[in-house]
Amino acid sequence: MDRSDISGPWQAYRPGDVVIALGLLTRLPLPASAFASLSGRAPARAAWAYPLVGLVIGGAGVAAAALATGVGLAPGVSAIFGLGVMVLLTGAMHEDGLADCADGFWGGWTRERRLEIMKDSQIGTYGVIALTLGLLLRWQLIATLIGAGTLAAGLIPAAMVSRGCMVWIMYRLPHARSGGLSRQTGTPPRLAMVGALILGAVAALFTGAWVCVIGASLAVTLASGALAQAKIGGQTGDVLGATQQVVEITVLTAITAATLS
């Protein structure tokens, strides 16, 4: 798929794209398929709306944690409910990508072998370690933000910024394999990529550490892209999921550090 933009900048952003993005990145029972735009547009053109999906997912996590806190549960327990709701909404697709990348990148010696490992449904030692550490970090950071009373100002921007960074990886890196979810979705046009980054940046402005959030997110995204390029020669759906997870943890860490300082 080429990166040419459709005529007129505002025509690149359509309300129906939000439904397509939700259908692709969540398990919500939506009437439209993630690959069937109401206007016949390619799914990748809806990538600008990925941060809005983060708004929905992060907001659901905040709501679940708030309900748990409201009935008197401790921050650590409330954090489990919030994290659990987010994982259920996405079907753990990003967590799966993190585990697959950890297994493939460090379990194979050649590009072909790494891609083969990443496609394998079984999880290995590296994947277990990455998944466990990622979940523990997110749980602890969310619990800390709950205790500080700033969960919404931390979790929602983290969910939005991290999904905006996914779109940059989609745009900049070639597809590493001929099939798979990322290849089916396609390469987003430039306007979709710019729109996603703008939405992520706006979300970062609502944090108390927007400079750190934007700077750290940029650094981690560039590093993730460089690593994927070096290991497998491009990006896959697993790479996008892993990028989302790592950036989300980075943003939560930056916001938590600013909150406690």
TrEMBL record:
It is an enzyme of class 2 (transferase). It is a multi-pass membrane protein. It comes from the Bacteria. Its EC number is 2.7.8.26. It catalyses: alpha-ribazole + adenosylcob(III)inamide-GDP = adenosylcob(III)alamin + GMP + H(+); alpha-ribazole 5'-phosphate + adenosylcob(III)inamide-GDP = adenosylcob(III)alamin 5'-phosphate + GMP + H(+). GO terms for cellular component: plasma membrane. Its cofactor is Mg(2+). Keywords: Cell membrane, Cobalamin biosynthesis, Magnesium, Membrane, Transferase, Transmembrane, Transmembrane helix. It is found in: Cell membrane. GO terms for biological process: cobalamin biosynthetic process. It holds the Pfam family CobS. Pathway: Cofactor biosynthesis; adenosylcobalamin biosynthesis; adenosylcobalamin from cob(II)yrinate a,c-diamide: step 7/7. GO terms for molecular function: adenosylcobinamide-GDP ribazoletransferase activity; cobalamin 5'-phosphate synthase activity. InterPro entries: CobS. The chain crosses the membrane at residues 48-67, 73-92, 123-142, 148-171, 191-211. Joins adenosylcobinamide-GDP and alpha-ribazole to generate adenosylcobalamin (Ado-cobalamin). Also synthesizes adenosylcobalamin 5'-phosphate from adenosylcobinamide-GDP and alpha-ribazole 5'-phosphate. Belongs to the CobS family. This is Adenosylcobinamide-GDP ribazoletransferase. The gene is cobS.
